[in-house]
Amino acid sequence: PGEAGIPPQFDWSGSRNIDGVSYRWPRPSLFDTGGIRTIGYEGTVTLPVVLRPADPDQPIDLDLQLTFGVCDEICSQEAVELAVRLPAQAPRSAAAPADLAQIDAALADRPRTAREAGVEQVTCALDPGADGLEITTTVTFSDRPASDQMAVIESSSDRSWIGPPDSETVGRSVIARAPVMPTPTRTASA
User: Fold this and answer.
1) Where are the alpha helices (DSSP H) in 2-155?
2) Whole-model pTM?
3) pLDDT, tens only, 79-123
4) Which SS3 state, helix, strand or coil, does residue 111 take?
5) What CA–CA distances, in Å, run from 78 to 59, 68, 164?
């Protein structure tokens, strides 16, 4: 979610006959609240989720525990549980037309792939910065991107935190620089 906010957490462990789960995130918005950047959605969001059954001939018994952040002036963590049996190989036509329209709209409003966006090259470097390490990414496009492009750099590791990047467009490239800090380790107490 950026500098602030609460990332969603999906717990599918109570489900049966699920071999894999993937998400088709719609394009998020960038919010600036009191100088803090947050990435997320405003109002209602439809998140298409693809469930891969272990046995396609059997139903999926879905038991999802979901926690997510709801933010305005402050963020609060909310939790919901969803339990439902999904029939094996249910046809698309089994869904309500309004639901299908929301899902199709969310799928259409997704971030573009690198190929679709005309990305020619991506480089990433980690160098000493003023206050520790700094990551610099350069994304070069086939055509000059809009001058208001913003970069979002997220770590795939929970052992490091990447601060808000400063972005600039130079020619056909968007260059972003951000501080990298180790995440403090928690020690167990007796």
Assistant:
1) 97-108, 114-117
2) 0.70
3) 999 999 999 887 777 778 888 999 999 999 888 889 999 999 999
4) coil
5) 29, 5, 25
Look at the chain and count its residues.
190
Q: How many CB atoms lie within 10 A of CB 133?
A: 15
Rounded to a whole number of angstroms, the distance between the first and last alpha carbons of the chain is: 33
Dihedral through CA 186, CA 187, CA 189, CA 190, nearest 10? 140
pLDDT tens across 31-40, in order? 776 777 778 8
Sheet strands (E) in the chain: 9-11, 18-23, 29-33, 36-40, 49-53, 60-71, 75-86, 119-129, 132-141, 160-162, 166-170, 173-182
Structure tokens at 105: 């709209």
Residue 114 phi, psi (nearest 5)? -60, -40
Structure tokens at 18: 């699920």
